[in-house]
Amino acid sequence: GSEAASEQGQEEEVEDRLKEHMDNLQDKSAKVRQAALRSLRLALASKTLSEFLLERRLTLTDSLEKCLKKGKGEEQALAGTVLTLLCLQMGSGPEGEEVFCSLKSLLVSVLTDSTASPSARQSCATALGMCCYIAAADLE
């Protein structure tokens, strides 16, 4: 009994931290946004959070879009990596496809932008390839 309660308490704590990181993606400070992206990257890479993310995918997708559009260099690279992990978590169903389709043109835009940093372009290329492989329903 107490193990289950302890596990549920840890789960809620993890979710609260994730919500805080997602809120920090809206911050004016690039350093705060980058720290939030690093934390999200670590969380998405180490734990299956599909239930939690399913309810918040639109909010997270919007935040990643802003980081890709307005961010520079490292922020764009981190956003591309988090997007890849989000696609992996959402899987090949309609939710994953929705995330991919909403950011596909922006990924291509950063990838083809010769003024974007090499790390941002590489991260967006990886995100485009992985998300396309996982979530694209359209074979083209």
Automatic annotation (TrEMBL):
Which parts of the sequence belong to the Interferon-related developmental regulator N-terminal domain?
5-139
Pfam assignment, any one: IFRD
Where is the segment annotated Disordered?
1-21
Q: Which InterPro entries match?
A: ARM-like (IPR011989), ARM-type_fold (IPR016024), IFRD (IPR039777), Interferon-rel_develop_reg_N (IPR007701)
Q: Which family does it belong to?
A: Belongs to the IFRD family.
Q: What is this protein called?
A: IFRD2 regulator
Q: Which species is this UniProt entry from?
A: Anthoscopus minutus (Southern penduline-tit)
